[in-house]
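README: folding subset

This subset contains proteins for which both the sequence and a predicted structure token string are available. Records are stored as plain text. Below is the entry for Class I SAM-dependent methyltransferase (228 residues), shown exactly as it appears on disk.
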Amino acid sequence: MALFLKRLRSRTRKLLGIGKRPKRHRDLKARFTHVYRGKTWKSSESASGPGSTRDSGSVRQALIALAQVVSVYDIQSVADLPCGDLNWMPTFLKQNPKIDYIGYDIVDALIAANRRAFPGYAFRVLDITREIPARADLIFSKDLVNHLLERDVWSAVANMVRSGADYVMVTSNSDPVPNIELPENVAGSSRPLNLQISPYDFPTPLYDDGYLVMWRSQDLAFVLDRAA
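--- output ---
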């Protein structure tokens, strides 16, 4: 009888889809896993693409931005999402050894590789469009939202706010051109995204270098209504 009930519950869960990841999550994970395994972004140094090479302009800007906000806002903990293959982040962490760091990524293989290569840091598989990360003083999100559909941008930022982080820093290009939607289901696709213009209209940030922008989480509370 107990075995019958167990099988019945299992079959019911399958029929109702309980416990399954929604298709949108599976598509997002599959897209970024394909990019990683297929080396879509074509960099000999980093699986995360040329924007993660240690001598790239975007990495130099990221190191400057992190150094400034950590000092000015007394940041003690950082959630890095997506962390990618952690090609350049150790430079910052060596300069700031007291930072409590955790790296998140949707690609299982990346997280497994990072755990082997960097046993001194914490890593976790996470889909920020559907899951809430653990609280950190700062959520640092370089080159994520430009790879997401508009609906997923809202969901991702909302979950960053829900985490209880004090500050959220994301890539937001200062280009005055209108925002456009991302082509759907195209591996590796991207476009510039300015979160301070329509349809996002985020408020004036605390930090803005034209590439990385930081807000207090409380100033982004309106995002929770848009993502509901």
